[in-house]
Design brief:
Blueprint lengths: L1 H19 L3 E7 L6 H20 L8 E7 L4 H13 L2 E6 L3 H13 L4 E3 L16 E3 L4 H15 L5 E6 L2 H14 L9 E4 L6 H13 L4 E5 L2 H13 L2 H4 L1 E6 L2 H7 L1 H4 L3 E4 L5 H4 L3 H14 L5 H20 L4 H8 L3 E3 L4 E4 L6 E2 L2 E6 L2 H4 L9 E7 L1 H4 L3 H10 L8
Parallel strand pairs: 1-2, 1-3, 3-4, 4-5, 6-7, 6-8, 8-9, 9-10
Antiparallel strand pairs: 10-14, 11-12, 12-13, 14-15
Length: 415
């Protein structure tokens, strides 16, 4: 009997050890194909680096991490199906995406599974505004935060100019255009006209038609509310029409990969915003951020973009929340995240409690001349930071957030 008891105890101990060592699965729901695939690739690289680093430190709660991924192609319906598949495969948390429509749809389905969803590149105000819920956390800034820093810079350097807007026809495009119109005082559509192009699936003819109308206008500023390959296509047509010489081009949300795809010669002088560039850690005196830049550059022979930094940060923030909560339970993690202040790859940041928006500094950037870019060893020193705005000035207030929720018929607290 004693031998049987000892055998059972040994078996139970071995089983417990095996369970403790069972990997924790993180689910990356990202665009491997489609217009935003370059931003998706950067997210994959950032996530893998973070997971490898954490595993080298012992994992999370004594268990190693592993990454499962699914391609969204930046299509909301596909992203929702991916959530179901990743949940069935045992994912403990979901993250990723470069389209706000994807993040919003996938986040809502993740909530039905009781899983947290961290948005990487989802700039629509709606993500943490009218469509916000308890299971969604947005790591990047909102369209309103981008518009405020852009408005500050443009009002100072290009006051009283007329604008022409060309906008992707979905939630990110709509809220970004609306926000930028407010902060640049270009709300009058008769003086500052705009056109929308389909997303996804815009044709070159759609951009040709829209940009031809822009060329026929008397606007001095061309606001291309486009992202990823869509922006690159539009910029090539704008160049052919001579618009890059006679108009100031503004692309509200720029990324490193967009400049890489188009080339710094074509993108020279374009103004936009970034929540992070590889130059930011030195600017903000973040030793951890500089270590990330060095590790990423050594591993991939390129500088990390804001897309990579976002995915990397999300993995670390989820992992640290799990360590604080001593649990993978979503409700425990929400409590560990809400109001949490930290510093990782830049200055101070915080997960705001009432809307789950990440509060952080936002930067207005301008693409450097090609000759300056080529002086860099990796030839990827694309951005000059021309303005910065702290989170307290950039993010909407509780009163503004509640007003937006009330107008949309949504509850004034996250559900």
């Amino acid at each position: 009997m004693q031998r049987l008891t000892a055998t059972l105890a040994l078996w139970a101990g071995l089983t417990a050890c095996a369970q403790a060592a069972e990997p924790i699965t993180l689910g990356l729901n990202y665009p491997r194909t489609g217009s935003y695939k370059e931003e998706g690739l950067a997210q994959m690289r950032g996530a893998l680096l973070a997971i490898d680093e954490l595993n080298a430190q012992g994992g999370v709660l004594g268990r190693p991490l592993r990454l499962f991924s699914r391609d969204t192609a930046s299509r909301p319906q596909k992203a929702v199906k991916n959530v179901d598949k990743l949940a069935a495969e045992g994912a403990a948390m979901l993250f990723g995406g470069s389209s706000s429509a994807v993040a919003i749809a996938a986040g809502k389905r993740a909530a039905e599974h009781g899983l947290l969803y961290f948005g990487t590149l989802t700039y629509s105000n709606d993500t943490t505004g009218k469509d916000a819920h308890r299971y969604m956390f947005r790591e990047c800034n909102s369209a309103w935060m981008s518009a405020r820093v852009l408005g500050k810079y443009l009002s100072k350097t290009l006051p009283d100019r007329r604008y022409f807007y060309i906008t992707s026809d979905y939630t990110w495009g709509h809220t970004t255009e609306s926000s930028l119109r407010q902060t640049t005082h270009s709300e009058d559509a008769a003086l500052n006209p705009g056109l929308r192009v389909p997303f996804p699936g815009a044709r070159l003819a759609d951009y040709q038609d829209a940009l031809t109308q822009a060329a026929a206008s008397d606007a001095q500023v061309l606001a291309l509310v486009l992202f990823g390959e869509d922006l690159v296509r539009a910029m090539r047509i704008a160049k052919d029409l001579g618009l890059t010489e006679r108009m100031q081009i503004v692309a509200p949300n720029l990324t490193q990969s967009m400049v890489e795809q188009a080339g710094p010669g074509l993108m020279e002088g374009v103004i936009g915003t970034e929540p992070w560039t590889w130059r930011v850690p030195a600017l903000e005196r973040s030793s951890r951020g500089e270590a990330f830049v060095a590790a990423f550059s050594q591993r991939y022979a390129m500088y990390p973009s804001s897309s990579a930094a976002s995915a990397y940060s999300i993995v670390y923030q989820w992992a640290e929340a799990a360590q604080r909560a001593k649990s993978l339970d979503s409700e425990a993690l929400i409590k560990a995240l809400e109001g949490h202040r930290y510093q990782l790859l830049k200055g101070k940041q915080q997960w705001r409690g009432f809307d789950h928006q990440n509060l952080q500094t936002v930067y207005a950037v301008k693409v450097k001349p090609r000759a300056e870019v080529l002086k860099d060893p990796l030839k990827q020193d694309y951005f000059e930071i021309v303005e910065r705005l702290d989170a307290e000035q950039a993010a909407p207030s509780l009163a503004e957030w509640q007003a937006e929720r009330r107008a949309a018929g949504q509850p004034l607290t996250l559900r």
